[in-house]
Amino acid sequence: MIDILLSTYNGSRWLREQIDSILGQSYGGWRLLIRDDGSTDDTCEIVTSLAQTDPRIKLMDSTGRGVSSARNLGLDSASGKYITFMDSDDRIDPEYLTRLIDLIVKEQADISQCSLYYWYEDGTLIKEKETVDDIFEGHNSIMHAYFSGMVGHICLAAWGKLFRSELLSGIRFDETLIIQED
Distance between the two ends of the chain, CA-based, in angstroms? Predict the structure, then answer.
């Protein structure tokens, strides 16, 4: 099972489309753990309504503590074999989970990553040139990808990847950071 950890704050503008992209996954073995950070819009109402139609959707409160805290609380609640992160304005392709799980299982990797697109409000869609579908196995491979000048080979954001959950055991996001917290 895959736990999808979604942190949101006033994300109602994108939330229905985002959750629809999750509900449309070809891989069905997922659970969506949504941590709301004290939204003042109708985020909670939207999630509550959608959770009534699909028991895999769970809303949890992390009021006013920031995205890193919300992610850490999500990690504390996760029980799946794999974990992926989403931000409140992300959408995923219908094959997102299938592609990432296939890569990680086939290669017995610790992290799989996929290409990404930036979708602008005017409808423009741009493929990120530097990010590639890839897998990373073991501490040395992961550290090499992050710190050897290969920025772009591994996307530095938490989203867009599937992690073997045991890899994240004991690892937490720094809750004192308000930017570059990934």
Answer: 23
User: Apex CA 9: angle with CA 167 and CA 60, to 5°?
Assistant: 60
Instruction: Express each pLDDT in 65-75 by its tens digit.
Output: 788 888 888 89
Helix (H, G, I), strand (E, B) or coil at 67: helix
Backbone angles phi, psi at 22, to 5 degrees: -75, -45
Identity of the amino acid at 118? Y
Phi, psi of 62 (to 5 degrees): -140, 45
The percent of residues above 90 in pLDDT, for the chain, comes to 36
- Tell whether pTM > 0.85: no
Using DSSP, state whether 112 is helix, strand or coil: strand
User: What contacts 103, CB < 8 A, 6 or more positions away?
Assistant: 109, 112, 133, 135, 162
Residue pair 179/77 in contact by the 8 Å Cβ criterion: no
